[in-house]
Write a sequence for this structure.
């Protein structure tokens, strides 16, 4: 649960949730009528099928909005699996309020909204737990399968000092930035949830070919950066460009104008 969540960054990648979860809700409710839902929604001059479709439509609208927010945040915040689990519970929580509002409206003024709300919490959580768990498990399996099929020996980047001695072996996806500092380079990287630094006695020239092959991009004569950790590129009044990173404890990185276009295209 403390591992990094890996899903598509685009809103399009969230359409599976937006479409399948409401489809499951209406199908499961219509076929099985759990918790006497068919009898409860057989009111207001409309059949229970109509109400189930309306509730599924409301759920789709809620998911369309929450997944839009999630996609925007996911590009800038390193979500862990437990963060994502809370997010999913939060989506059902928000939906329950709209479900209760719809239910109270068609039931009429004789029904107390908060009494209906407690019932809608029961309906929503006990039904939607199944599609959420299924889709989350599928994503975990896909992540694990990707990890198992990877070839660690070839994908790890190895850092040698000036005497050709191996000093650090690391997943290039964990490297945030590399900075030249006199006779050293400073390698900033993620270790679990913490940012760490490693000082290596070598020159940027000695390692630039290696790190460029592993997805790091030169943004300045003294810096390489991993585009995945860039929050945004900003320019001040003097025209100086800097890359602000996702982790506030890592200082901003200068970006030379000659590297700006290439770097911006990668974000």
């Amino acid at each position: 649960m403390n591992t990094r969540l890996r899903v598509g960054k685009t809103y399009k990648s969230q359409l599976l949730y937006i479409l399948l979860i409401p489809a499951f809700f209406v199908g499961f409710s219509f076929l099985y009528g759990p918790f006497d839902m068919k009898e409860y929604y057989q009111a207001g001059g409309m059949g229970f099928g109509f109400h189930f479709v309306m509730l599924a439509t409301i759920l789709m609208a809620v998911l369309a909005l929450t997944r839009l927010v999630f996609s925007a945040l996911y590009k800038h915040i390193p979500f862990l699996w437990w963060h994502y689990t809370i997010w999913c519970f939060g989506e059902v929580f928000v939906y329950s309020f709209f479900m209760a509002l719809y239910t109270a409206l068609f039931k009429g003024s004789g029904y107390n909204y908060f009494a209906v709300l407690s019932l809608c919490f029961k309906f929503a959580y006990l039904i939607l737990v199944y599609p959420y768990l299924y889709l989350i498990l599928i994503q975990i399996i896909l992540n694990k399968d990707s990890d198992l099929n990877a070839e660690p020996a070839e994908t790890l980047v190895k850092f040698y000092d000036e005497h050709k001695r191996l000093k650090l072996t690391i997943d290039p996806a964990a490297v945030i930035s590399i900075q030249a500092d006199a006779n050293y380079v400073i390698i900033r990287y993620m270790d679990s949830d913490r940012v760490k630094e490693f000082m290596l006695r070598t020159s940027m020239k000695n390692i630039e070919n290696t790190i460029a092959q592993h997805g790091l991009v030169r943004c300045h004569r003294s810096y390489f950066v991993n585009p995945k950790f860039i929050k945004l590129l900003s320019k001040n009044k003097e025209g100086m460009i800097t890359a602000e990173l996702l982790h506030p404890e890592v200082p901003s990185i200068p970006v030379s104008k000659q590297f700006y276009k290439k770097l911006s295209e990668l974000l």
Q: What stands out?
A: The two ends are 27 Å apart (CA to CA).
